[in-house]
Amino acid sequence: MSLSLPLPAPPTGNRFALVTPDDDSAPVIIVTILSVIFTSLVFAVRLLVVKWKRHGYDDGVLGLGHLVALGQWIAIFIALYNGLGKSLEIIGSEEQIVLAKALFVGRILLLPALCFSKFSMLLLMRSLFFWESRKKTLAIELAMILVILWGIGATLAVSIKCSPYYVLGNEVDQCPKHVLRLQLVMITDIAIESLIFCLPPLFLYTFEIAKSKKWLVILAFAFRLPLAAFSTMYLLSTTIFIRSHSSGTALVPTVLWQEILLAYSLMSTTIPCLKSFVEGFTTGGLRYANDDSYEMGWRRKKFHRDAEQVKDVDTRIRNSFRSSRRLSGMRRMNEGASINSQASGQPIIGIAM
């Protein structure tokens, strides 16, 4: 008696994600759903556990990034509903129009979401190192300006003079030099991520703390490095898709890398906030508190506010001291003048008598 394994069910029927030669949307559905779930969970843990009651500007900026990402996810789900990942031969003309517009919007929203993620990381870094020399804080602020310029320029570069229908693989002339634009955008993105990673090691170089603690902090920021690989894969998959003049199912790899890049960019911003990476690390602006959260941007405000108050009190004391000295001097002068007048008046009275 021989045992045989049951044959797999035919690819028909009501299934969650059906894979056929004309329909390869299942991976996009799964990856997009996982992207939404894991990104939202990590952000919730950041706000409600890691940094509870210690929220700073970096959390607000990252929240804006999640709002933009939400718009991107909605655009992808609209594209999926209208045939993303399916052969264009089985998609109606009206559905193709909606698919093209939704996918085009999703690609545009990807870039500002990445920009907010980078900016949030730099704000966090500035909170950690704000007591350091002016040169170090200036380097972070210059990096912030660079990120803002990149976000604006990248968003305009992939949208100006581009029709949404180029994403379907035909009429590439509707977006002239799109490959070159995307190459410039993503190469610059990789360079900026590398710059962000290099800042903490440069700042920690002069600190007199244990090397193990330095490496632990560097490791926390090193979790951003895989973004360079994901950006490269997104660039390669998109370039191959556009140059091949393909459509339909050929879009799947591009969308997959787009979702992976977006999700990891948002999630990796929270990793440097975890206790296991920064416990025991102390530098002016970062001090690990007993309630498992950081004393971040509010400490900077409090420090400057206290410094201004001390300076104001010192100025008042000095002004009061100067005023008292000036007043006492004037009193002595008045007393001297009165004595002189009295002394000069006595002889006159004597003569009159």
From TrEMBL:
Keywords noted in UniProt: Membrane, Transmembrane, Transmembrane helix
Record field: transmembrane: 28-49, 61-84, 104-125, 137-160, 180-203, 215-236
Listed InterPro entries: Rhodopsin_dom_fungi
Rhodopsin domain segment(s): 51-278
Designated name of the protein: Rhodopsin domain-containing protein
